[in-house]
Automatic annotation (TrEMBL):
SMART domains: GGDEF, REC. SUPFAM superfamilies: CheY-like, Nucleotide cyclase. NCBIfam families: GGDEF. Residues 283-415 form the GGDEF domain. It comes from Shewanella schlegeliana. This is diguanylate cyclase. PANTHER family: DIGUANYLATE CYCLASE DGCM-RELATED, REGULATORY COMPONENTS OF SENSORY TRANSDUCTION SYSTEM. CDD domains: GGDEF (cd01949), REC_1_GGDEF (cd19921). Keywords: Phosphoprotein.
Amino acid sequence: MRILVVEDSQVVSRVMRHLLTQELCCEVDVAPDMASAKQLLAQNEYFVAITDLNLPDAQEGEIVKFVLAKQIPCIVLTGSWDAEQRERLLQLGIVDYVFKENRFSYEYTAKLVKRLCRNQSVKVLVADDSLVSRKFIRSLLEQHLFQVIEADDGISALSTLNDNPDIKLLITDYNMPGLDGFELIIKVRERFSREELAIIGLSSDSDESLSARFIKNGANDFLQKPFVHEEFHCRVLNTLDALDMVTRLWEQANLDYLTNVFNRRYFFNLYEEKLPVITQKQGSLSLALLDIDFFKKVNDTYGHDVGDEVLIEFANRLQQSFSAHFTVARIGGEEFVVGFKGLNVEKAYVLLDRFRMQLELTPFETSKGSLNISVSSGVAEFTHSETIDELLNRADQGLYEAKDGGRNLVCIVES
């Protein structure tokens, strides 16, 4: 990723280069005037341009129009505050207008570029029955590189969310036919938690209670129409930053720090909730405990860094084989567990043995060369009368039998 900074102040350009390279793995080109900026723009493709308004050879902000004409997102830095100029630039479609006041202004700009990078993979759903309003909001979001989907009422918005569960932000108007903004939020929150989907409510209604009602019904924020560009962007970015923070906290609590599969805590909490439901519905559940064979020897021979590489690759292969339909977790050291919800022990055995054979035939590529890795597994089926601990202990008996039988085996423990 390449970023262009057009700034005649060497101090400012050095600060921006430092902050940008600190926040992102990127290349930063600096142009002190419009002529050199044009040369760089002709030679390179840029993700974003950060431009000063007053350059030695272009003192009327000409650089902004030039950058936008090349369809490059533009962030404007300025040392003077001019309300009319700010409004004119925002109408042109710049990403943001930042007053060069102190170091925080430059830190804000660097974080904004980082946010723009993340925005490219963020889907936003705009629900509004007004075509004009939808298109206006869409244009603001696309300036910040979001993927935007539109819905013309609450019912179609609900359908779109069901078809696109990876949408991260819903922006919904209050007054819509069929299903208004409040009703939409209530139905959305029945399926999507605050950790999964953020919601911002909108309304041109003068009712002062709307803001509180939106938030009490499950929205993260509310914005009164009409709104200025900057307030809209600030609300959207703050909401998504909060969502990202919640996501990071959830991941720290529930994902294994090394392999990025679920951890022991998540697995136990999940299946403590699932077991009563499985029992009530007389459903099937098989649980497998897997242990990498002779893993201590890998650590002793090649070092713990290579051992970590093996654990990461093993977890990746487990996820590729099972995570689409089942639950994979690391419960400690070189031990992993797979929960086969809906499968009896015979069907789970077939999948595990296929995984074992594929693992044996495909060496692990590490920094110390190729390593042949095998796995031993024990698998047990839920009896509808035991706890998750008891089921795991029975799978552990099967794992012990597999090791005792020479390793590189899958052993079934009968109930």
